Amino acid sequence: MSADTVPADTASADTASAESPASARLAAASGNRRGSAYADDRHRRRYRLTLGGLIVLAVAIAVLMLTWDNQHPLFSEKWWRISNMRSESLIVIALVTLCHSFATVAFQTATNNRLITPSIMGFESLYILIQTAAVFFFGMSGLDQIDGFVQFLLQTAMMIAFAVLLYSWLFSGRLGNLHVMLLVGIIIGTGLGTLSTFLQRMLDPNEFDVLRARMFGNVGNANTDYLWFVIPVCLVTGASIWLMARRLNVVALGSEISTNLGMNHRRQVMLTLTLVTVLMAMSTALVGPMTFLGFLVATLAYSITDTHDHRRILPVAWLLGFVVLGGAYFLLRHVLPMVDTVTIIVELIGGITFLIVVLRRGRL
């Protein structure tokens, strides 16, 4: 076959393969899909069916959580009182899944790695160290001293300041780069975790038992008195990431291509990581650490949506998180008397998913 008779798509693919890997990725992202988020109409229909199914599941779980085993007459004063109490847990689950899904997808795009999560930067280690230090220096009353709105603000401010300073120091410098920042974040997180373990070994066994309950994320740990502050912060931050979805599509192409397309890649990555920090700090301060929840829902969202478009990945990841965490919370609280194990089971499934993905890829 002569060069003149080679189809246009085949010729463009050959040209892309002869160029740099970055150019090949750009061709794969834009050329093959012809500017669309999907390869063909079949994928588009499958996405819409999936999105619709997740919305129906999320609404069903919300209704079940509000109405299950409510023995008072329907819509009576006592019925509404119980439903309102349950609605606080529902709002907490929606906020936590929003924070973890949006933060993980945006973080993996900024770092160009779908195996790492924002917790690698030491948020959870810093949270555990604060809780451990409070018990170590002030005893059992230490946990009461860090339960308050001012204390909540201080915890979130410390986690945000810790991460932003780390980003500014390691990523904005002349010799700074993303890999060095991640490596230092892992080392600092490990150091904070080791210090927490050292303090925990010197605690009274009774104090350690109380502290251990704070080391696992738990919807029941959330203080709903702070929701008036957490809700607008999470919604504004999540909306900011949503509005940056098209820029994240470009960031996912890599530093070289995004710079050639006119984007200030470093500034965009810094902005994305700062928004991720705010979401993770809010979630961790509200309910505690959840290491693998974000990884689980983000990995499932990539697989289900099969697209590079963050406008479609982000809502699916949030809905998946709500269905997974909300469904587990409903089953283990209202059907099985195992409510304290909700996040442990979700984290176990997320951890197993992480190992499966690593083993299938054969590398980190």
Radius of gyration: 23 Å
Strand content: under 5%
Distance between the termini: 42 Å
Q: Could you state the order of secondary-structure elements as H and E?
A: HHHHHHHHHHHHHHHH
Question: What's the main sheet like?
Answer: none
Overall mean pLDDT stands at: 78
Number of H- or I-type helical stretches: 16
Helical content band = over 70%
Which spans have pLDDT < 50 for at least 5 consecutive residues?
1-24, 26-33
Counting DSSP E segments of at least 2 residues, the number of strands comes to 0
Structural class: mainly alpha
* Shape verdict: globular
Overview of this protein structure:
With 364 residues, this protein is an all-alpha fold. The chain has 16 helices and no strands. It has helices spanning 8-18, 21-31, 41-67, 77-111, 123-138, 141-145, 149-171, 178-201, 205-212, 227-243, 245-251, 255-260, 265-287, 293-305, 310-335, 342-361. Helix 4 crosses helix 15 (310-335), helix 5 (123-138) crosses helix 7 and helix 14 (293-305) packs across helix 15. It is globular, with a radius of gyration of 23 Å.
Please give a quick description of this structure.
This protein has 364 residues and is an all-alpha fold. Helices cover 75% and strands 0% of the residues.
Q: Which features does this protein show?
A:
364 residues; mainly alpha
